Amino acid sequence: MAEHALALAINGREHQFHDKLVAYSSTATSGQYSSEVETVAVVGLGYVGLPTASALCHGDVRVTGLDVSEDRLAAIKRGDVDLPEDEQAGLAAAIADGNLLLTEDASVLDESDAVVLCVPTPVDEEHAPDLTALSRACATVVAHVRPGQTIILTSTSFVGTTRRLLIEPLEQQGLTIGTDVHIAFSPERIDPGNPDHQHSRTPRIVGGVTRACAVRAASVIENMTDSVYLVGSPEAAELTKLYENIFRAVTLALANEFSDICAHFDLDPIEVTVAAGTKPYGFLGGFPGPGVGGHCIPCDPHYLLWQLRQHDHTAPLIEQTMRSIELRPERVVDRAVQMLGEAGVEPSGARVLLVGVSYKAGVRDLRESPALPILSGLARRGVRVAYHDPLMPQIRLPDGTSLSSEQTPEAEQCDLVVIHTVHPEIDYSWVRDCAQVLDATYRFDIAPHRQVV
Fold first, then answer.
1. Which of 28, 46, 8 minimizes the C-alpha distance to 222?
2. CA pair distance 371, 137, nearest whole angstrom
3. CA–CA separation, 326 vs 65, rounded Å?
4. Using an 8 Å Cβ cutoff, are 94 and 55 in contact?
């Protein structure tokens, strides 16, 4: 078990809480609740499931990847997936060696010792949880359950999801949890595009229904990481994941708000944030940007807010945080229009190019990207919008408008360039020739004349 430093802003006394952590050790539990896990099925091969399946292949198990999409399976087989280069090579080798089998046939679940569910959990237009895909996946797993199996849910959801979709249906079939079948929740901790946060170096949390459930699930999860910690229930693990992402949401909302405060004082928010970050206790900062995108931060807090509303409970800080995050792209639109006006250019008919549209540098992922409301907001003001992103050849705006990435942008044809996402190893030197540059990342030093939001 690798030693892991707690990331707590409690004045440097984190060491006092290490005894609160229950670390899983395969040697310490040898012979207790032991069960040989030779085959693992990963249900869902998306942004979480595929890296999970690939990471499991490094352990001493045979892995089967199950997905309902033939197109997704075909894309994985030909290597058309959004993974770092080294992980793509490992994935290709696992498929070629037969260590990872790909299928859409759910009958593979019948022969699997363990099942890991990695199904997306988005929110709908009203910010209510959309468990359509997860409910179907859990129902499929329940239909194919066999005695002795270990079932692990990793998808982020509201507290009680594991109990509602797995534990209760299995008990209704007459199975005893912890004896006949073992159930746990172990939230995914995927950080797309960040090579520093690999599976093997990222600790995982496991919450089992019983001690036996937790130990069996941890024995599966330890194939991916050096550190596994146990909490007392699936519900505790579910709320842990929500807390992690809500904390990040609050931090980012505060960073964006502080950038506006810095603008009032004509100060650089990056300089102020980095300076504050030199304090070794009591500060965990973030950097401002054009908004917050991806599968986690803009969505997951709404799962808790939705659940709390069902019980007439409020969480004002979280509610305001999510409202602030939702409004951030419009702040970028207002600043872009302001810059056009200051340059004597009417927004109606002006040409604005957005640099980068994926929600995060280095990933081909448009989910919840602030780029979409920014482009839509500019278009509503009469602006002629375009974008440049080699990782995203085509996109569709919320109103159905389709746009294609400009492969060779011409600086002189742009009234304004907005820097949204800067991908690594891409040449952006042409931006220097653009008359007006709005840097929504606050870190685009290639154009010295840039202005920030």
1. 28
2. 31
3. 35
4. no
pLDDT in tens, 173-190: 999 999 999 999 999 998
Can you say how many angstroms the Cα of residue 260 is from the centroid of all Cα atoms in its chain?
26
| Residue 44 belongs to domain spanning | 21-232
Residue 97's contacts (CB-CB under 8 Å, 6 or more residues apart) are: none
- Please report the pLDDT score of residue 29 as a whole number: 65
Which residues are catalytic, by number? Answer: 296
Give the pLDDT band of residue 32 (cuts 50, 70, 90): low
| Whether residues 206 and 140 fall in one domain | yes
pLDDT at 238 over 90: yes
Least confident of 10-14, 168-172, 316-320: 10-14
CATH (domain of 272): 3.40.50.720
| R_g of the chain, CA atoms, integer Å | 24
* Whole-number Å distance between alpha carbons of 407 and 33: 57
Q: Which amino acid is at 452?
A: V
Q: What are phi and psi of 227, to 5 degrees?
A: -130, 120
Boundary of a domain, candidates 181, 210, 232: 232
Q: What is the DSSP string of 351-415?
A: EEEEE--SSSTT----TT-THHHHHHHHHHTT-EEEEE-TT-SEEE-TTS-EEE--SS--GGG-S
